[in-house]
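Hey, sorry to bother you again with one of my protein questions. I've been puzzling over a protein and I'd love to understand its fold better. Take your time with it, there's no hurry, and the full record follows here:
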Amino acid sequence: MRVRRSIWLGVLAAGLGVLALEMAFPQRPLTAPVPDTVDMADMTWVEVRSAVEHGYTVAIVATGGIEQNGPHMVLGKHDYIVHKTANRIARSLGSALVAPVISYVPEGDYDPPSGNMLYPGTLGVPEPVFAGVLEGVARSLKRAGFKTIAFIGDHGGSQAAQAQIADKLTREWRGQATVLHVADYYGAYEAVQIQYMRDKGEAQSALGDHAGLIDTAELMAAHPQGVDLSRLANLPLRSEPPGHSGDPARATAEYGAALLDIKVNAAVKQIRAALGDKAASVAPSRGTTGSATPAQR
C-alpha cells in the first residue's frame, strides 16, 4: 500500500512539475514574417505557415519539361518560361505561393522512341508517373493549409494528367480544397498568341509548332542566355532533322514579352474567376481574347 501511494505521489509531483514549467515558460509557436519571395523553395517551413495564416492560400504548381528545342535553345525552355510566368501570376493574385517547377513530364515512347524522345537530352516519364507526382504534390499542399491548388503546365504533354488529377481531387475533397487545371494558360497559345503574331505580320509558316518563333521569343524574354540564334544560321544545307519548325530566327525579346503577357493574363483571369474575385481586373493583354484547343508544343 505504501509503495502504491509512493508511486502515485511521485507521478503527481512530476505532473505538477511539468505544469509549473509550462506556466513559467509557456510554449510559443515559431513565427516568421511573410518573406518578399513567392517561391516556396526559397522559404522556410515557418515562413510558409505564416504566409498561409496571412491569407496566402493559393498554391501554384507549375510544370515545365526537359526536352530538345532545336539546336538554338536549351533543354530547359519550358522550365525557365513557366517559372517566370508562375511568379508573375502569383504576384498578380497577391495571395499565392509557387511550388518548385516539376521538370519531368510525358515526352513520348522509349522503345521505339517517339516525339521528343528521339533526341538526346530529353527526359520523359510515363503519364501515370507524372499524374502520381501531381497528386502527391497537391495532397502535400492541402496538408499545409492551401485551399486552392492551381496546376499550370507550359508543355502540351502535361495537360491531360493535370485535368484528370484536378477533377479527381476536387471531387474527393468536396469543398475542403479545390484543384484547378489552368487550361487557359496553355490555351492562350493557339487562341491568342498566334493571332497576335499574325496581327504583327508574321506568316503562319514562320510560327511553327515546336521550338519555333513563339517558343523562341518567349525564352528570349524569360531567359535570354538560353537562346543562340547564330546556331540556326550555321546549319548545313542537308542535315539530320534539327528538332524545330517554323522560322525561330525571326524571334525577338519584344515579341516574347508580349507573348508572356498573354499567358500570364489568361491564367490570372481564370484563377480569379475560380476564386470568385470580381473586384480585381487583369492588366490589359497586348493580344486579343479567345479560347481554343491548342496543338502540343
Notes: Residues 2-24 form the longest helix (23 residues). Residues 278-296 have pLDDT under 50 and may be disordered.
